[in-house]
Protein: DNA 3'-5' helicase
Amino acid sequence: MQQDPDLIARTANELVGDLNPQQAEAVQYRGPALLIGAGAGSGKTRVLTRRIAYILSQFGAWPSQILAITFTNKAAAEMRERLAALIGPVAERMWVSTFHSACVRILRRDGKSIGLDSGFSIYDTADCERLVKLIAADLNIDVKRYTPRAILSRISDYKNNLESWQDKLREQAPDYRPGQRGYQIGNPGNAEALYAVVYAEYQHRLAAANAVDFDDLIGRTVELLRRDPAVADYYRHKFRYILVDEYQDTNHAQYVLIRELAGVDAAKGMPALANMPYAGREGQAWITVVGDSDQSIYAFRGADIRNIQDFEQDFPNAKTIMLEQNYRSTQTILDAANAVIAHNEGRKPKKLWTALGKGEPIVGYAADNAQQEAAWIAGEIARLHGEENIAYSDMAIMYRANAQSRSLEEALINAGLPYQLVGGTRFYERREIKDAIAYLQGIVNPADDVNMRRILNVPKRGLGARAEAIVAGYAETNTIPFYAAIERLDSIEGVPTRTANQLRAFRDLMDGLRKFAADPANRPSDIVAEVLSKSGLLDELKKSEDPQDASRVENLSQLQSVAAEFEQNTPDATLAGFLETTALVADSDQLPGEGEDSGKVTLMTLHTAKGLEYPVVFLTGMEQGTFPHSRAMEDASELSEERRLAYVGITRAKRRLYVTRAAVRAQWGQANEMMPSQFLDEIPDGLIDWKRREAGVERMRANWSNGGFDDDEFGGWGDDDFGGTDIRRFDVRFGVARGIGIRFRVRIVWFDVRRLVIRLLLRFVRIVLRFVVRVGRASVRCRRRLALAWRFRDRLPVRFGRSLRIRLVIRQFVVRVELVVAQRTRHHAPCRAENTGSSSAAGTGAPRDNGLNIADFHVGDRITHDMYGLGTIVDTLDKGAKSVITVDFGSAGTKRLMLSRAPIEKL
DNA sequence: GCACCTGAAATTTTT
DNA sequence: TTTCAGGTGC
Structure:
């Protein structure tokens, strides 16, 4: 046994005593290759951590001999945490990480032998797209026909399958030399050749910039292991036990990586390994993979389900253990999941079971539209919280695509429920953050052309496309990096004086920053602060009048906090290390860890939800075209993947599952009728308790059909449709007017009208325009006009969010006016007084308590009032439900308002 | 070089 | 409905 003070040795009984027979067998199994087929909720993380502990304390392995791989940082962190609880602080010294960060670590250490300097940059999707665009421009590629995205996805496919650019070039375009200038693609119709050329050029430029993309992290590590026997030996010697979580989501490159690391093929000639009590120090490392082929939902990203299906053939002497007892959900939920997944063909039959009993039925709800669906869910959440005392953090709302989150968010805000949205636009993808990071990358890696070119004119310093082209041309002629060309500015000919001065200033700026960063006394957060102030990024945003920029400033300061936090958690924090963590974050990493109670309802996509569980789960948007997604409905294999996604979604629920759908869903402004999802039909009818089986529209439709009417006679269901009339479409736009703090952009999007009165309406439009534009200027008189406009809210479909829509109905004509209001920071779910649960009812006329809380209002706050417009609070009076605020509305006078009744909105 | 205007495209899912 | 990229005029 090892004598490691940081390791708590566990007895076999401690590790398997409380497990079921299959779990115990999996933990204790001795052999070179083990596949644990772990159904949803079967305790797989538990088995994995126990097995690691078992390997350490019973096989006598060193912690450093273990490599445990997961897909997300969060999963890795959680495993490390659980391990620490089980075996002590030694867990911190083990390699428990994602594929990507493990590879970064290997490449940083040993990448030199394949030409990667250890300070390499990691390009995210946006960076890669920029690079492809640059290449496309140089090669005269028609980006309408070949979008950078499509090219990138092809390149990604090549990489996931470990097809090298050299091979592709040899096959498709043997006359091309990467880096060659003035090359014209012979036949632009030859897509394969084009992809090959761009792929080669892309890799060439990545190499020149000392950069890699996400796929390269895996692919180049494989390359390293194959090309450098010394390196391969080192890692094969080091890692004697390799464990991989979510194995069904591995792609070919990851599969090969595991094989190479374990030395499976290198060990083939060696003496037989079977019946060894532990992995030993030579030969193939022992591999444990855990996965569930029914939860494979990343095929679109190259994951190859065959990796798990063929495991037994791929690895000699492989053993499979299936875990089918579920500890998470009720039998009803499992029955639904089993029934749905059974519709997939060609899978190994598997039936999850539980000892937890039948539980509550699944609840179904068919809404008229997305807003109503969301409102009903919000009402239900309020009810569950109020009546059944279920914590908000125990409830999650899931959907197929991020775009669906908006209506749900709005409903939760309206109902005053706290929520947290996971995913969507990520922090590190925000423009201002990317700009700041680009500076940091430029400091660490001056050869990084993509990031250098990004910041050349950010913030604006008079270095436009022209200047960039001059520098880029010089760099290309001399085959030096972009920034190196700037450093040699004086030898570039034909640079206008002004441009030269600006370039010099930029060079001095970057040099200064690099010197600052090089000083060991300056920590990453100091460097971030220095970059933000010296570059002018912060100043530009602070000066800006655009209210969105205010939140950008906040984001930048948050970046600094993140850096500071990084320093706290990392012993030798370097700037490069910080950049690495920012490059490899995932959506799910924002989720609170185990045991932390956020106190909020969680909203996320089904993909993000994988691996999580909640007592109450709402599966929303159960419609054909939404889920399964329209792009996946035709192809049988893609439909199977959608079904697996449904399986994942259903099995997230522990106690209660809700399935909801909307009969009409608007996608980019167009309302569409949606059929119920086929997955709903695949759930046995008896399991679902429908609170509302048919949407209102559908019921009406059914009635009319029964009465012998044809649907068409009633025209469409769009609310702006004048069935049968001659409809003309106009698009009148008006420019931007800057108000005080708020920017209005006004445009008449379209209006429908009978041909005869077009001219009349055009005149009307002009009036409307004048009216609204004045509002934009926010002169005193116009505040009242704005107030007038706001009064339409009650009668008309108006929505709050980034934009405010107002529809004016004048006699039988419809004119839609759109006011785009750039808001200040968006407040998520303000804390309001306790919710009665009645807020789900759709707008009924009677005035009722608006749920505003006096605690949220302070003297000096800005509000808007439906009647009086914008105003400033001059006094507040706390009298509980009868609180009164006094507001100065400028020329409209100063008013005292009953808070609970006033039609006001805080800004 | 920049600000503004206009048409067109976008929504699957992500390390 | 929103965002983006390319074109145009100052």
Summary: The radius of gyration of chain A is 31 Å.
